[in-house]
Amino acid sequence: MTPQDFQKATAASDDLMNSLYIYEKELYKWQKRSNLVSSSTLPDLWGRHFYDSMQLANYLPLNGEEISDIGTGAGFPGMVLAVLGVPNITLIEKNSKKVEFLKRLKTLIKPKVKIVNKRIDKAQTLKSDIVISRALAPLPELLRLCTFILKADGYIIVLKGKSFFRELTEAKKTWIMEVEHFQSRSDSSGVILKINNLRLRKYDKAYIA
Q: 3-208 has which CATH code?
């Protein structure tokens, strides 16, 4: 996907495009010294990363909910959503080099976003209404990580690829949940999962510790 294709597909404003051009330039610059994303995905940055991230805006309410992007890496999807204007987003990332990159983007583009340099299991005070994630971990492990910061009545939105059904089947051995799935706009084999009412099938303190 070219920038022109992206703008046509999303009706992005020129201001938003300019912000994403800055994002693109900085990502390429930092990638040379800090492996922020898989280099093989960079030729399709606008489709694989920007468009893939931006589509989540359609599933996020804008009523003051606190949103956390866990393991955000180079800011996908959370920083892209913040640049788009989605409010109340916190980016949680343990890798200090990636956090430096995110802070640089915040300085240049000025999105309203919080950046937290912590492991997810050490960020338990950051209780969130919605947890979002992309390419962090297989679903069973991802759900465990979400429990550290997800409010009791909160929900999870996660981007998954073609292995989602196998991962979901495996996750259901440990977790009870309500799941909705939607077709990804950026990947014909991918889905967006919305997960509510997450709880362990059998209480196991060792599993969530």
A: 3.40.50.150
